Amino acid sequence: MDPRGFARQLAAQYIAQGEALGWFEALYAAAGEETSRIPWADLRVNPHLVDWLGRQPTEVLTGRTAAVVGCGFGDDAQLLATLGAHVVAFDISPTAIEHCKRRFPDSSVSYVTADLFHTDASWVRAFDFVFEAYTLQVLPSTLRSEALSAIAALVSPQGRLLVVSR
Fold it and tell me: Tell me, what's the pLDDT at 166?
């Protein structure tokens, strides 16, 4: 079965069991080291993030705090760190986070296993820049509004939020 079909099948199974988010870990765990089995794992920085950053002043992230929601295998977080940001990158999948730590063992990024709906209270309004790509769209429609609110709650009062979706 193709990776997208497998992901859809897992999602449907977990949603039917009342575990709308459980399929993320199941997918990463099933993939193991075969990253091609994760439909969204390109192992490169999101081109929309690159485009957005290219239109900002070069120092836009220097010394700032940044969060990457649903960080997957860490490419976006790594880029933000190289631009001088203090980055927290989180994913609900412990397997994905462990993969990030193996891929980037000397990284300054703080890779954390966390559930968007139950983040650390210290993260509320704490980040100057928050990036989310393709996470909202794979959630059940009943969770999207709550998820967007949870993402927006991470942004500091003068911060910026960049959401990428299809």
Answer: 81
